[in-house]
Amino acid sequence: RVLQLMNLTDSRLAQAGNEKLELAMLSFFEQFRKIYIGDQVQKSSKLYRRLSEVLGLNDETMVLSVFIGKIITNLKYWGRCEPITSKTLQLLNDLSIGYPFQKSCSVRKLVKLSAVQFMLNNHTSEHFSFLGINNQSNLTDMRCRTTFYTALGRLLMVDLG
């Protein structure tokens, strides 16, 4: 239900959004990631069967694609809202941490996604407003940039080993 709600709220972000609802969804994603995404997770869990039935998300790669889509959407529409930006970047950072030397690693799956390739190729303020350089940059903006580029750096290094 959270993923269905996310689709509805994201489609209306151009008009208006709800900060508390976005933070709640990010908390959901954080818990979901800890429990259902990763190399130690049982891939035949009932959850993945149910996600396939209801939303057409057949495997972990498709779920990772939803996560990355949400991250990009949040960074695009909520780039000037520090709590959402920070929590979104923390989710990206957490997803980028893995064990890339394992063949089935979720980080390897992540790097292959077109949305991740988009981030790796378009990391400018045109796409992500929090990266904009202005005279009023504060420590929080710099921390967000650091988290963002740390995660991108990890993702770039996956294929290099």
Automatic annotation (TrEMBL):
Main location: cytoplasm
UniProt domain Exportin-7/Ran-binding protein 17 TPR repeats: residue ranges: 1-137
Keywords on record: Cytoplasm, Nucleus, Protein transport, Transport
Annotated compartments: Cytoplasm; Nucleus
Record's GO cellular component terms: cytoplasm; nuclear pore
Keyword match Metal-binding: no
Coiled-coil intervals: none
GO biological process, one term: protein export from nucleus
MF (Gene Ontology): nuclear export signal receptor activity
Family (UniProt): Belongs to the exportin family.
Protein name as it appears in the record: XPO7 protein
